[in-house]
Design a protein that fits this description.
Blueprint lengths: L1 E4 L16 H6 L14 E7 L5 E7 L1 H4 L4 E5 L1 H4 L3 E2 L3 E2 L1 E2 L5 E2 L5 E7 L2 H10 L1 E6 L6 H4 L15 E2 L15 E9 L5 H6 L2 E9 L11 E6 L5 E4 L5 H12 L6 E4 L16 H11 L3 E4 L2 H7 L5 E10 L5 E13 L26 E10 L13 H19 L3 H8 L13 E2 L3 H11 L10 E11 L4 E8 L5 E5 L8 H13 L6 E5 L16 H24 L2 E3 L2 E3 L5 E3 H8 L5 E8 L8 E14 L6 E11 L6 H20 L30 E6 L21 H13 L10 H8 L5
Parallel strand pairs: 1-32, 2-17, 15-16, 19-20, 21-30, 24-25, 31-32
Antiparallel strand pairs: 2-9, 3-8, 3-10, 4-9, 5-7, 6-11, 12-20, 13-18, 14-15, 14-17, 18-19, 22-30, 23-24, 23-29, 26-27, 27-28, 30-31
C-alpha cells in the first residue's frame, strides 16, 4: 500500500506519533471487559427461544434452580416488563408474552461457573405456541401480515416524548423518513424527461466483524450505586438509557472505562447490562456475561439488509432532473438499536449522495421482521445507498453512451448547490477528486480482455455534536487530559494528545490522556458518526489554548519548545515554572466545543473516488481485484499513521462487504453462518495493490482544518467493483455480496 499527498501537509502535526494505547496493546497488558474479574463474581447465561415467533404459554425454572452453583434464575415475572432501547424502547430485557426471533432471551441465570449457568439455562422449561414468522420486510408490509409488535403504538420513543410521532403506514413499520426537494409533484418532470431510468438493488445483513465479542460486568455498591463495565462506545447515552429501563436515577449509574477490541460501528449498542443488573441485584454479587461468537452472529444487531428502487429523470445531455427513491430496510425484531429519532438507519442516507438533483423525493422505511435486529455498522446506510446510486449512475451512463466519469462531472455538486436532501455543502471537492482520479489512475487506458476498471464517487458529512474535557497542570510539570470519549481502535485518544501537545508547544511525553468514567469525566456523545476528530479535537484545542493563556498570563512568559521564555529571551525549564504556578494546587481548565449541526449549517463533506481494476474468470465467475486507486479530500491530518490506517482499513472493510460478507438465514429464521469460518471476512491475502491519493488543500472545521476519515473509504468499494465487473464481462450485479457464484450465474444467463 502506498500514499501520495497532492498538496504538502501544513506540518503542524509532523512530530513523531505516539499511539496512546499502543504499548499496552502490543504487550498484551491492556484488559478488555472479558479479562476483568471482581471478587465473588458470578457468571450469567440465558434461556433463549428456538422459534422466530411464538407466544410464551408457561415458564418453569424449577429444574434450573436446582443445578449446583446456581444463585438466581430470573424471568420477566421477577423483573417486570422492562423494555430497552436507544431511542425507541421496544426490546424486552426478558421476553414475557412472546418471542420475536430465534435466540430471544426468556430467562437469565447467575451461577458460580459459566458451565453451571449454561446448564441451568438449558433446563429452563418453556411452553410455546408457535406463531407465523415474518422473515421478509416486504411480506411484513403486506395487508394482513402477522403483527410482530401489536402494541407498537404504545412504546416509549425518547425523540417524541410529549410530541406526536410521524404517522406509520403499518404497525410492522419501525420508523419512516421522507425528504422532498424542489417540486412536490415529480410526475410532470418524469413525463417530459428525455429518458427515465429505474433500477432495483438488494444488500444483505452484515456483522460488524470485530474480534472481541460483547462482554458485560455489573456490580452494585452498598450505597446502591450501579457500576457497569462494557465495551459500549457511547457511555453517557448508555447511562441515560439504563436509567430509563431500570427506573433508577442516572447519577446512581457509573459506566466504567473499558477497552474495546474493535467496533466498526457495532458497539454503539449493547444489551446485556440490564439482565446482568437484575442478576447482581438479586444475588448481591458482581455478575459477568461474555458472549460466544455463535451468539454474536445469531442475535447481535447488524447492518440492515436493504431493498432499494432508484428512479431518475435525465435530459438529453445526461443532466439529472429529478430523482425518486424508495428504500425498505429489514429492521429485524427490534428497532431499539437505532439511535436516530426517526428509527431508520442514518435517517434517510441520502444527504451524502454527491450529486445535484433539483427535484427529489426519498422515502426510507425500517420494517419489523422476526430476524436479527438491525443497527449501525460503519457508515450505517452508506454501503447500501452508494452501492445502489453509483451502480445506477454507471448504468445511466452506459445507456446514454456517456463516459461514466464525464457523467459524474456533469452532475456532481458544485459551489452553491445542495445535496439531495437540500443540505448545504462547504467547498465541495467532487470535481477536484474526479479530475485527480482521472490523472492518477490512467483512466481510459486499454486493458486486456476480461480485465477492466470501474469507478465510484462518494462523500460523507463530518459529524457534529458537543463535548467537554478537562486539562490539568500538576506541580511536577505533567499535563493530564481527562475525557469521556471512548477509544475504540481508531486512535481517538491519540488525536486528543497530539492536539494538546501542539497547542501547548510542549514535548509529547509531558501530556497524558485518559478516558474517565461517567462519574468523573464530562459529557460526551460517544465515538461514532465521523465526529471525534472534529469535536473532541476541537475541545482539546480549546482547552489547551485556555490553559496556555492562563499559564502565560500568570508567569508573564510565553511557552515555546517546552520551555517558558521571557521577553528578553531568558528561558526556564517547564517543570521549574510549573512548580511555582501550582504551589497552591493544580491548575485545571475545561475545554468545550459545540459543533452541533442545524438546518442552516453548511457542512464539511469529504469527497472520495475509487478506480478499481478487476479480472473476471468467465469459467468460474471468480473476481480478482488487481489494482486500486482511491482519491480522498482529507483536509489537515492530525495523526498520519492512524489516518492512513483508517483509509487502508476502510478499503479492506469495503472488500468484505462487497465480495464475501452475508449473514444467511434458513427458512425458519435461524442464522446459518454462526462462526467466522462460515461468515467470511477479508484477510491480508485478499488485499490487492492499493494506492491512496490525499488532497489536503480544503480545510475542514476540525482543529487546524481537519475533516473525517473513519467512514469514508469503505462505501465506494462495492459500486466500483460492480462497475468494473460489468466493464470487464458485461454482466451487472445488483445484489451484494458479489460472489463468484453470483457472477457465474449471470454469465451463464441464470438468475443470480
Amino acid at each position: 500500500m502506498s500514499t501520495v499527498i497532492v498538496q504538502p501537509a501544513r506540518g503542524r502535526f509532523s512530530n513523531d506519533e505516539i499511539r496512546i494505547d499502543g504499548r499496552d496493546k502490543v504487550s498484551g497488558h491492556l484488559q478488555y471487559t472479558a479479562d476483568i474479574k471482581r471478587p465473588n463474581m458470578l457468571w450469567a447465561a440465558y434461556a433463549t427461544s428456538p422459534y422466530a415467533h411464538a407466544k410464551i404459554v408457561r415458564i418453569d425454572s424449577t429444574a434450573a434452580k436446582a443445578v449446583p452453583g446456581v444463585r438466581a434464575v430470573l424471568t420477566a415475572a421477577d423483573i417486570g416488563q422492562r423494555m430497552w432501547g436507544r431511542n425507541l424502547f421496544d426490546w424486552p430485557v426478558l421476553a414475557w408474552d412472546r418471542v420475536r426471533l430465534i435466540g430471544d432471551r426468556i430467562a437469565a441465570v447467575a451461577a458460580e461457573t459459566r458451565e453451571a449457568a449454561e446448564e441451568a439455562a438449558r433446563l429452563v422449561e418453556v411452553e410455546f405456541e408457535e406463531l407465523p414468522a415474518v422473515l421478509d420486510p416486504l411480506a411484513a408490509l403486506a395487508p394482513g401480515a402477522p403483527l410482530i409488535h401489536p402494541d407498537r403504538s404504545s412504546y416509549y420513543h425518547a425523540a417524541f416524548a410529549g410530541k406526536t410521532p410521524p404517522e406509520l403506514p403499518h404497525l410492522n413499520v419501525q420508523g419512516i423518513s421522507r425528504a422532498v426537494k424542489g417540486e412536490p409533484d415529480l410526475g410532470p418532470i418524469f413525463s417530459s424527461a428525455q429518458r427515465v431510468f429505474e433500477h432495483h438493488f438488494h444488500t444483505p445483513r452484515m456483522h460488524a466483524g470485530y474480534i472481541e465479542p460483547h462482554a458485560t460486568l455489573v456490580w452494585i455498591d452498598d450505597d446502591g450505586t450501579v457500576h457497569v463495565q462494557t465495551p459500549n462506545k457511547a457511555p453517557y447515552n448508555l447511562q441515560r438509557n439504563l436509567a430509563r429501563t431500570l427506573q433508577i436515577p442516572a447519577e446512581r449509574i457509573v459506566v466504567e472505562p473499558s477497552a474495546i477490541g474493535g467496533d466498526f460501528g457495532g458497539k454503539g449498542l449493547t444489551i446485556d447490562e440490564c439482565p446482568c443488573y437484575y442478576l447482581a441485584k438479586a444475588t448481591g454479587r458482581p455478575v459477568r456475561y461474555v458472549q460466544r461468537y455463535s451468539e454474536e452472529l445469531n442475535n447481535v444487531a447488524t447492518r440492515h439488509s436493504a431493498r432499494m428502487t432508484l428512479r431518475t429523470a435525465v435530459d438529453a445531455n445526461g443532466k439529472f432532473l429529478a430523482h425518486d427513491s424508495k428504500i425498505v430496510y429489514d429492521g429485524g425484531a427490534f428497532g431499539g438499536g437505532k439511535p436516530g429519532p426517526l428509527t431508520v438507519p442514518g435517517q434517510n442516507g441520502y444527504a451524502a449522495v454527491p450529486y445535484h438533483v433539483p427535484n427529489v423525493h426519498i422515502e426510507s422505511m425500517s420494517v419489523y421482521t422476526n430476524t436479527i435486529p438491525g443497527a449501525h455498522v460503519r457508515a450505517p446506510n452508506d454501503v447500501q445507498v452508494f452501492f445502489a446510486w453509483e451502480s445506477h449512475v454507471d448504468m445511466i451512463a452506459g445507456a446514454l453512451g456517456i463516459d461514466p466519469l464525464e457523467l459524474r462531472l456533469r452532475n456532481v455538486i458544485r459551489e452553491g448547490q445542495t445535496t439531495l436532501t437540500n443540505d448545504a455543502v462547504k467547498q465541495p471537492m467532487g470535481v477536484a477528486v474526479l479530475e485527480t482520479l482521472r490523472a492518477e489512475s490512467r483512466y481510459g487506458s486499454a486493458r486486456p480482455a476480461g480485465r477492466a476498471r470501474g469507478i465510484s464517487l462518494v462523500c460523507r458529512h463530518t459529524g457534529g455534536g458537543k463535548t467537554q474535557l478537562k486539562i490539568r497542570l500538576e506541580a511536577d510539570g505533567t499535563i493530564h487530559v481527562l475525557t469521556g470519549n471512548v477509544e475504540q481502535g481508531g486512535g481517538q485518544l491519540t488525536v486528543a494528545h497530539r492536539v494538546v501537545v501542539s497547542a501547548l508547544a510542549v514535548k509529547p511525553e509531558r501530556v497524558t490522556v485518559r478516558r474517565g468514567s461517567t462519574s468523573e469525566a464530562l459529557q460526551d456523545p460517544g465515538t461514532g458518526g465521523s465526529r471525534v476528530t472534529h469535536i473532541v479535537g476541537g475541545a482539546a484545542q480549546a482547552g489547551a489554548d485556555a490553559l496556555r493563556a492562563e499559564l502565560e498570563k500568570r508567569s508573564g512568559m510565553v511557552i515555546r519548545d517546552d520551555r517558558f521564555v521571557a521577553a528578553g529571551g531568558r528561558s526556564e525549564a517547564f517543570e521549574t515554572v510549573a512548580r511555582g504556578l501550582c504551589a497552591a494546587g493544580p491548575i485545571e481548565v475545561t475545554g468545550a466545543y459545540d459543533g452541533t449541526h442545524d438546518a442552516h449549517h453548511e457542512g464539511d463533506f469529504c469527497f472520495s473516488a475509487y478506480s478499481i481494476e478487476v479480472e473476471v474468470d468467465r469459467e468460474t465467475g471468480c473476481v480478482q481485484i488487481t489494482d486500486v486507486v482511491v482519491v480522498i479530500d482529507v483536509g489537515e491530518i492530525v495523526n498520519p499513521v492512524g489516518h492512513q490506517g483508517q483509509i487502508d482499513g476502510g478499503f479492506i472493510f469495503g472488500v468484505g462487504s462487497s465480495m464475501m460478507e452475508e449473514l444467511l438465514l434458513d427458512e425458519n429464521g435461524k442464522v446459518t453462518t454462526l462462526s467466522l469460518g462460515e461468515y467470511k471476512l477479508p484477510t491480508i491475502k485478499d488485499i490487492p495493490p492499493f494506492r491512496s491519493v490525499l488532497i489536503t488543500e480544503n480545510a475542514g472545521q476540525g482543529p487546524h482544518g481537519t475533516k473525517a476519515a473513519g467512514e469514508l473509504t469503505n462505501t465506494g468499494v462495492a459500486p466500483a467493483i460492480a462497475n468494473a465487473v460489468y466493464n470487464a464481462v458485461g454482466v451487472r450485479l445488483t445484489e451484494l455480496p458479489m460472489t463468484a457464484e453470483r457472477v457465474y450465474a449471470k454469465l451463464k444467463g441464470a438468475p443470480a
